[in-house]
Write a structure and sequence with these properties.
single chain; four-stranded antiparallel β-sheet; 37% strand
Amino acid sequence: NAVVTYDIGAGPTTTTLVGGSGIVSVPSVGSDITITLSSIADGTCSSIIDLSATTVVNPIVSPSFASFGPYCQSETPAALPLTSLDGYTGTWSPSVIDVSVAGSAVYTFTPDAGQCASTASIEVLVTPLLVPTFLQIEALCLNETAPVLPALSQGGIAGSWTPAIIDTSIDGVSTYTFTPDAGQCADVVTMDIEV
């Protein structure tokens, strides 16, 4: 074993190097430092030396990520990346963005071991689906001229119908499906119309 005395600017400090290892652990500091080794003794002989070495102390970094969401409820979310924008790898908890419930949730990234990185968290917002509403179209007579299916819901949600036109040539009840245009956080709804 060797005893090393060093100074990082706060006065001499002594540490023991076990088995002749050349690693000196220094207290955590926030920037580059210079270590001056002033003496080494191995128990049988001692020598005074004057060596200097500059070491870089890497700060612990919080990994960064692009923002996620907001998502519409039941929309397909993006996968959480296993590598941060600044190159740190790790895992997420929870591992998948849950869009089944509206509201905000926090997802935590834990870096893999051996990286100077701390955990990082992101908040993801899930917006509830709006439900388009329409005035019910009353029963129509066979071959009667049918009203036009509205392209806007009562709440102003735009979309299209399938089928697009009410068919009064056949009697009975038919189902018409309204699909909101893309980019609106709105659900698909149906209307049954009787002829």
